Amino acid sequence: MIFSLYDCWRIGTAFRMSKADNPAALAQEFVQLRSDLSKLTQQIPYDSGETILEVLQRVDQLSADLKLDAKLQHYLERRSYQKALDWFENPQQPHRM
Q1: CB neighbours of 4 closer than 8 A, spacing ≥ 6?
Q2: CB 84 within 8 A of CB 71
Q3: With 50 as the cut, is the pLDDT of residue 18 above it?
Q4: How far apart are the C-alpha atoms of 14 and 30, rounded to whole Å?
Q5: pLDDT one-digit tens code per residue, 40-80
Q6: CB 3 within 8 A of CB 11
Q7: Which of 20, 32, 40, 73 could form a disulfide with 68 if both were Cys (CB 3.0 to 4.6 A apart)?
């Protein structure tokens, strides 16, 4: 997968990336989290044999393991998956009800 400069900026913003972090690994986790959120919001289908429980556990694990932006962490903790996915599209977007 090829990332634009904007995608790289969003990855760094989402995960508060430090110079010691591995950008390729963070990018992979970024893609996985976004994909899982798309599945949970029914924008893309689940992989063959994949269950909702597996996807939920993966999202919970990624959100626990990564140093996420405070707003994104808030959305994930409260299971506001559509808002979290919207955050990926525009991190500066104001909160919506």
Answers
A1: none
A2: no
A3: no
A4: 8
A5: 999 999 999 999 999 999 999 988 888 888 899 999 999 99
A6: yes
A7: 73
